[in-house]
Amino acid sequence: MKKLITMLILFFMCIGYSQDPPLKLGVAGLTHGHVGWILSREVQSDINMVGIVETNTELAKRLSEEFGFSMDIVFNSMDEMIKAVKPDAIAAFGNIKDHLIIVQGAAPKGIHVMVEKPLATTLEDALKINNLAKKHNIQVLTNYETSWYETNVKANSLLEQGTIGELRKVIIRDGHKGPKKIGVSNEFLEWLTDPELNGGGAITDFGCYGANLMTWITKGQIPNTVTAVTQQLQPENNPNVDDDATIILTYDNKMAILEPSWNWPIGRKDMELYGTKGAVYSDNPTQLRLRLSKGYSDYTEETFLLPERDKPYDDPFSVFANVINGNLILEPFNVYSLENNLITMQILQAAINSAKSGTTIKLETN
């Protein structure tokens, strides 16, 4: 009996010692509308927010009152925050152009980084980020809301199982009425509609979702060609950037149509996969429909109502912590990965160039 008790004590001690301590997380910027995801996150054992970089004191005070963090952890620069709190990781919640600057400040110190989509404003910046990550052996993840959708995972699983046959066409639609119309903060709107700070308008803000998902679905295939057109349908609200785009990607045996827009009457992030036997519709985060062909126009339809993704995939910060701690090894070309998002940026850069030049851009597919 004593031997059994001793073994149980040792077992529970091992469990206690094997648990990773909370990662110290710094937050770089507060202007991104998604920053509430970390500021409102319930206390968990994986990540502890220890510092914030924000030069807009008024904004910091406003969010401090809303979310309850102390102004004592707010700093004016990355160097100041890193020196004071020594973070293990940094989450970027400012403009997209600053992603490179954040990685330049973090990588040499071995600090991991997660940015909000897209990875960068240009392919040139994305390649610099990649070089820094490889040189200093850090993780750089890119967070997309659609990474959390169980419907996308189910759709891809049905495709891989051969349920809808060989993939022939993908249609991905993302967007909303436009940042001003949905009432984003002035600080967010200011850089979202700046072509330098955001890389473009809807073509980058929402075009990245489809490019990211296609790169995941195709396991890292680079499209043969990229053709894009953009329009500005709300010049009064978005005077310096596009607010509507269509991007066509061609591959050897399939194609994709991406429709990012700030002109959808209803916010959406949905995906349709069309195969030789049927189609899958990811309508939203929880509803998926499967149609299988019967003859010319008849079909069977099954609707799936799905839960949130299992832990740690239900929360991007949990994914970030588990990847850093080595508890989670993500699949090649997964939606968070640097290798995926380099191709995503290659597609976005080609789309921007295509829209500007009015030509189809051919890519080196190796």
Automatic annotation (TrEMBL):
Coiled coil: none
Pfam families: GFO_IDH_MocA, GFO_IDH_MocA_C3
Residues of the Gfo/Idh/MocA-like oxidoreductase N-terminal domain: 41-143
SUPFAM superfamilies: Glyceraldehyde-3-phosphate dehydrogenase-like, C-terminal domain, NAD(P)-binding Rossmann-fold domains
Positions of the GFO/IDH/MocA-like oxidoreductase domain: 154-280
GO MF: nucleotide binding
InterPro entries: Gfo/Idh/MocA-like_OxRdtase_N (IPR000683), Gfo/Idh/MocA_Oxidoreductases (IPR051450), GFO_IDH_MocA-like_dom (IPR055170), NAD(P)-bd_dom_sf (IPR036291)
Protein name: Predicted dehydrogenase
Organism per entry: Maribacter stanieri
